């Protein structure tokens, strides 16, 4: 199966006919000196008349500044909604974002499990974000658009999808506090039909240890079928395409949020493996709800953990960095379906 990725893919794609056509950009970054960072996303659902806009900032002492909106849109012409604006400067090399608006400041981010209550009972602060993200060009890109469909009807999560490790610099201000950011992260761009209920569960791990080392590990489970495992490692100027990842998770509390992740990501082509472990520093649980054709409400939980990562074997043993561990689960009988992994 061939995969296409052109500079034009860094910009907007033609709006498809599917009611749930989604085009989204996501980016995260963390400053290793201060531990401050966050992630940002816009998902255009123009055929449904709105965008999904999220700003999530991980602040000192475990606080989170958070905002989610569904601003109205009528086209798929730009990522610019709800106060969050994306500007592509040079494909594969430079991207900028800016946000002006409010965030709710959470001393206990897990309150977002009940978003209505969390927004009602916590203070808001004015927020300003200006960040520049730089990448290492086309050789550092992972993914693209396959030349043949790779998902069954009703199970689509993205027609095209690519990722890249990046560096970041700029500023984040929340209220009267401001941080200068010099850090690292990962960005993601996808387009095509999407329902958050399509995967049975997934684990998406992003880790960046500086200019020369990082990884993305992905485990996607289907309700009926083996799903997929893979990702990539960027190791001193070379991208290693990985075809397996094994993950073990330690959870905490009655809600079974992930707290510690250990695993190994492997490339049969490179004949190399990288062992890693992650400790969640701060976690915020998000959710998506949708009615099925019979009128039943389907609940999806997406637990977003700012994570400190360590390489535990090989030539990079002891290297530490930051990133995300994103755990998506369908919730059945009040329990996440992927708890065994």
UniProtKB/TrEMBL annotation:
InterPro entries: DUF7064, DUF7065. Residues 195-330 form the DUF7064 domain. Residues 12-83, 153-194 form the DUF7065 domain. It holds the Pfam family DUF7065. This is Unannotated protein. It comes from freshwater metagenome. The lineage of its organism: unclassified sequences, metagenomes, ecological metagenomes.
